[in-house]
Amino acid sequence: MLGILAGIIRFFGMHLPLQSMRIAMYRKAGIRMGRVSEFGGNIWLSINYKNLINIEDDVIMAGYITILSHSFLLSRLRSISWKIDAAHIKDYYTEKDGFFPVVIKKGARIGMHAVILPGVTIGENSVIGACAVVTNDIPPNCVAIGVPAKPVRYFNSVTAISDKRVAGGRKTRSNHQMLYVKCKTCDVEFCSMIRCDKKIFKTLDLRDNCYRCPNGHKNRYDKRDYYYKA
Q1: I need a surface site. Which of 10, 45, 52, 219 has the fewest CB within 10 A?
Q2: Is 88 a catalytic residue?
Q3: Model pTM greater than 0.90?
Q4: Is residue 156 part of a domain?
Q5: Cβ burial 17-51 (10 Å sphere, 16+ → b, else e)
Q6: Catalytic one among 15, 70, 88, 176?
């Protein structure tokens, strides 16, 4: 009976016409979601086990994304009668018997048809490319693509991605501030997903950029609408 109810809730969470409705259904199912900027249709989330998926503020999620928070295949490895080196499975098995929390940090962006597997944390402001399969943690401020997804570039800013590719796993982080705007309909403050310093900001052409606020209102914004948070 619980499985049938979960299936019904997931169906509405995937297919309701308004973003706010889809978010409300998944929250009702126990998904922890902040003030998400974009939440597309046909997003499949594991809801059979509550509080295992945490999506923070200002996240952008395109459509047709799959997020799994449990894996019975991995949790059953210890019951296999074959002789398996424990070192090979220790990264997969936990005391939660196959339940692995997924965390999507603030400002992350997930492309269409991406698949996020159990136990993954996606860092702040990182971008997951379309059709990527995320099997391991993704560091902050990077672009990750491929199967399995791996970081290929790190940000100098959201508006200017560094051409320096990842070398030897070294990570760099941006110190630039995020720009914010206020919704012209409901006056709610939200993140514009543009990160740059004041010198770069002066050179940017920010005419008629279109954003949707957390309440679903879509407006166009000019350069004078952007500001840094104190």
Answers
A1: 219
A2: yes
A3: no
A4: no
A5: eebeebbebbeebbbebebbbbbbbebebbbeeee
A6: 88
